[in-house]
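The data layer described in this paper is built around a simple, fixed record for each protein. We quote a single record here, exactly as it is kept in our systems:
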Amino acid sequence: MAHHPIAVEALPFQSLDVYVAARELAALVHAARIADVELRDQATRAAKSVFLNLCEGLPSDSGPMRRKHFALANGSLHEVVGALDLAHAIGALSPDVAHRAQSLAVRVKRMLRALGR
């Protein structure tokens, strides 16, 4: 699942680990095809929100705007974790995918916390 940005020349924020990890998490959630339709919709929308809020916040020169987007990404990240945990609990998501997504979410969380300082 190691896809590279489609741009020939990447923007500086695209090389950051938080960008790469959040992108990988969104791709993993999308590819997981959670068996429960509502949880699949919720998890994929939240995972996309994590990634896209990072994309808005990372290049911003405004501290308050950066913090706003990182806070939104953080909220969505917790929503992703909850949706995936519930999907796993009800048998709508394989343990392997749930574990991989949880690991990525923890990585993103640590980086979001550092960015919010």
